[in-house]
Amino acid sequence: MHIEIVKALLVDPKVRLLAEEDDMLVMACNEGDVDLVKLLMEDGRADPTAYNNQAVESSSKTGRPEIVRLLLGDSRVTQALVQQAIVWALEFGNNDVARSLRNHPLVS
After folding, report:
1. Which of 25, 30, 44, 63, by CA, is between 20 and 30 Å from 19?
2. 86 lies in a domain?
3. What is the C-alpha separation between 73 and 11, in angstroms, rounded?
4. Global confidence as pTM
């Protein structure tokens, strides 16, 4: 997905994206596109918990610690989701992701 096109869509007042932000976020996570994930999270409309936490799940399972940290920095994320992300990371052998998540403020 071309980031300049997404930027243009996000700032155009005539464009109403609604759930498309969540779709873009999931696609960006699946593709490992850190810049697009960052853009969407900074915009604030994309929800990392949408679609039963699909963005967090795919990023945890595929070992993308930077993306996982961006997603889990959102205020909609719960302690249970952070702990589940650690489990997904460990199940798929992504110890770096799991290790970095152990320092998350919601992990007790």
Report:
1. 63
2. yes
3. 23
4. 0.82
